[in-house]
Design goal:
10 helices
Length: about 230
C-alpha cells in the first residue's frame, strides 16, 4: 500500500501519553524509507509529491484536530507526537532514510529533530524553519533547514522583475544568485549567531557584496551587448 490507512483518533487515542496504535506498528512494519512529521500545508505538499512518484511514507501529525480535518478530505496519516521515541519506533524509525520535520511550531520541531538525531544519527533530516534563528538551531543538530517563505518570496521577486520588462532568463539568474548568496550567508552566520554584533556586521557586508555582484553582472551584460 502506498499510503497507509488512517487511524481516526478517538477520545482515548487523543489523550496525551497514549501508546502507539497497532495500525501504526503495521505501517512501520512495511518499512517505508520516508517519515513526514507534521501534515500542515508544508508537510502536505511533500506528501503529495511523494504520492505522485509512488514513494511510500509514514506521516505523523501531533494535532488531532488537523488529523480529523485531513481525514475528511481523504488524506491518510496517523495521529502521533514525533517527539516521543515510542512513536518513532512504532513508525519504523530504524528503517527511515529521510525524516521530513514539517511541524509549524519551532520548539516542537527542534525537540523532534533532537530526538531523531539521538535515535537515528545516520538518517538524513530535512526540517521546516520559521526564520534564520530557527534555521541556525536546526543546523546545530545537523539538520538541513528549509525556510518557510524563502522559495515563494523569490518566485514573486522573479515575477516582479519580468513584469518590469527584465528578460526571464536574466530574472532567473538574479534570483539564483540571490539564493546562493543567501545560503552562503546563512552558513557563515551559523558560526557566529550567538554574537549579535557580528551577525549585524556580516549582514551589512553581505548586502554590499550582493550589490557589487549584481552590478558586475549588469556591467558584463552591457559589455556583451553589440552596439
Amino acid at each position: 500500500m502506498l499510503l497507509h490507512r488512517l487511524l481516526r483518533p478517538g477520545p482515548a487515542a487523543a489523550a496525551a501519553g497514549h501508546a502507539p496504535d497497532p495500525a501504526l506498528d503495521a505501517a512501520g512494519a512495511q518499512r517505508p524509507q520516508v517519515l513526514i512529521a507534521g501534515m500542515g500545508r508544508f508537510g502536505q505538499i511533500v506528501a503529495r509529491l511523494l504520492t505522485a512518484q509512488h514513494i511510500p511514507f509514514v506521516a505523523l501529525e501531533p494535532d488531532p484536530d488537523t488529523v480529523e480535518d485531513l481525514w475528511r478530505f481523504g488524506n491518510q496519516l496517523y495521529y502521533g507526537d514525533p517527539s516521543r521515541p515510542e512513536m518513532l519506533r512504532a513508525a519504523g524509525g530504524e528503517h527511515i532514510r529521510v525524516f521530513v520535520m514539517a511541524m509549524g511550531d519551532p520548539d516542537s520541531n527542534l525537540r523532534a529533530v533532537r530526538l531523531v538525531r539521538h535515535l537515528y544519527p545516520a538518517a538524513r533530516v530535512l526540517s521546516r524553519a520559521r526564520n534564520r534563528q530557527h534555521a541556525w538551531k536546526l543546523m546545530d543538530l545537523s539538520s538541513e533547514p528549509f525556510r518557510e517563505v524563502l522559495g515563494s518570496s523569490l518566485e514573486v521577486g522573479e515575477r516582479v522583475l519580468t513584469a518590469l520588462g527584465i528578460p526571464g532568463h536574466v530574472a532567473r539568474a538574479h534570483v539564483q544568485r540571490f539564493r546562493e548568496h543567501d545560503d552562503n550567508l546563512l552558513r557563515t552566520q551559523h558560526l557566529l549567531y550567538d554574537d549579535e554584533a557580528a551577525v549585524i556586521q556580516s549582514s551589512r557586508a553581505a548586502r554590499d557584496e550582493l550589490m557589487q555582484l549584481f552590478q558586475a553582472d549588469a556591467d558584463k551584460g552591457r559589455e556583451q551587448t553589440p552596439d
